[in-house]
Design goal:
Elements lengths: L2 H7 L5 E6 L8 H12 L5 E4 L5 E6 L5 E6 L5 H12 L2 E7 L5 H13 L4 E5 L20 H12 L17 E6 L10 H14 L3 E6 L3 H13 L6 E5 L7 H9 L5 H8 L4 H22 L3 E5 L5 H10 L1
Parallel strand pairs: 1-2, 1-10, 2-5, 5-6, 6-7, 7-8, 8-9, 9-10
Antiparallel strand pairs: 3-4
Bound molecules: flavin-adenine dinucleotide (FAD).
Protein name: Methylenetetrahydrofolate reductase
Family: Belongs to the methylenetetrahydrofolate reductase family.
Cofactor: FAD
Length: 318
């Protein structure tokens, strides 16, 4: 079932959903299910699975020279989605990225997903390939999520890359896109970012999932600005409980988000990791309660391979 249908069916009640990462290469599906099992108690109608492209790592050879290797640390998004749907009978939402994919690769991935009975995709540009600093599109690929949306919409209309196909069957994917309450880091300003977010809706985006944020006011302002700009699709807030004091500096670096003073002070005052985890849980519960009162379609948690904090948050709310 489509994410938008789940939202409609909930009839104004807030859903619980979360995002998982494919396990590191070498692990098996059980390691992911062990992480997901406790969270399934709260009946998520859909679960997102991230996509991780290859990256370059440099290994020092005996002669002192550096050897460049290409590695994919977390492969398996498509297979994991099929395994989740099969094992839990919930909808899995694979993230599909522009980076590293030609249009042909994208079409083949979409055909696989269609055969597997996957109804939803979250379409994004994808992170830059480490250690590169700028995103580079494939020569025959897509530069932006909006271009990727166009391809999926074409397929939904039965238009494949091979124009000579006869009697080609259309897919019917529901399309999620990413939004940034604190602006995407590469956008010169919020207005420009919103212009492109609106373009994603116009091209066929059905709903938005936001980057994590720690101050609900940034989400409320974002929703208001989106609505003023004519963005009408559901905007699902993304939340992440803090689990270590290191995250006070890592999260702003990685995700370009602000942490409120009150939260950073509370984390700094903690004497050990357990106390930090507790602060993270309580902060996220407060955020979630306020967002629920506001009437958000779903509370979407970034579990990042650790379910314990999300479990405690969900237990307090669902
Ligand atoms: C909910 C969520 C899930 C994510 N999941 C993953 C994942 O699984 N794997 C992963 O690698 N990364 C993931 N990311 C990170 C994401 O790939 C990065 O944030 C990326 O830098 C931007 O992705 P986007 O789809 O928002 O890009 P885009 O929509 O392409 O936007 C990127 C930048 O270009 C601008 N822009 C947009 N469209 C155009 C256009 N047509 N012309 C010119 N400029 C334009 C925007 O303003 C923005 O500054 C996720 C992010 C979010 C919020």
């Amino acid at each position: 079932m489509k994410v938008t249908e789940h939202i409609k069916k909930a009839n104004g009640n807030t859903l619980f959903s979360f995002e998982v990462l494919p396990p590191l290469k070498g692990q098996n599906i059980r390691s992911l299910f062990d992480h997901m099992d406790p969270l399934m108690e709260f009946n998520p109608p859909f679960v997102d699975v991230t996509y991780h492209r290859e990256e370059f790592v440099y290994k020092k050879r005996e002669n002192g020279l550096l050897e460049r290797k290409t590695v994919r640390k977390r492969p398996g998004t498509v297979g994991i989605c099929a395994a989740i749907q099969n094992h839990y009978q919930v909808d899995a939402v694979p993230h599909i990225i522009c980076g590293g994919f030609s249009k042909e690769d994208t079409e083949n991935a979409l055909i696989d997903l269609n055969f597997l009975g996957i109804d939803n995709v979250l379409l994004i540009q994808g992170d830059t390939r480490k250690p590169e600093r700028e995103f580079v599109a494939e020569p025959d690929g897509h530069a932006h999520a909006s271009d990727l949306i166009e391809q999926v919409v074409e397929l939904n209309n039965g238009i494949y890359l091979d124009e000579e196909l006869e009697n080609a069957k259309p897919s019917d994917f529901c399309i999620g896109v990413a939004g940034y309450p604190e602006k995407h880091f590469a956008a010169p300003n919020m207005e420009t970012d919103l212009k492109y977010l609106k373009l994603k809706q116009e091209k066929g985006g059905d709903y938005i999932v936001t980057q994590m944020f720690f101050d609900n006011q940034s989400y409320f302002n974002f929703v208001e600005k989106c609505r003023e700009s004519g963005i009408t699709i559901p905007i699902i807030p993304g939340l992440k409980p803090i689990t270590s004091s290191k995250q006070l500096t890592i999260l702003p670096q990685l995700f370009h988000v602000d942490l409120p003073m009150e939260l950073s002070k509370a984390v700094e005052a903690c004497k050990n990791r357990e106390e930090v985890i507790q602060v993270g849980i309580e902060w996220t519960i407060q955020q979630s309660k306020e967002l629920m009162e506001y009437g958000v379609p779903s509370l979407h948690y970034y579990s990042m391979g650790k379910s314990a904090s999300v479990y405690e948050v969900a237990k307090a709310l669902f």
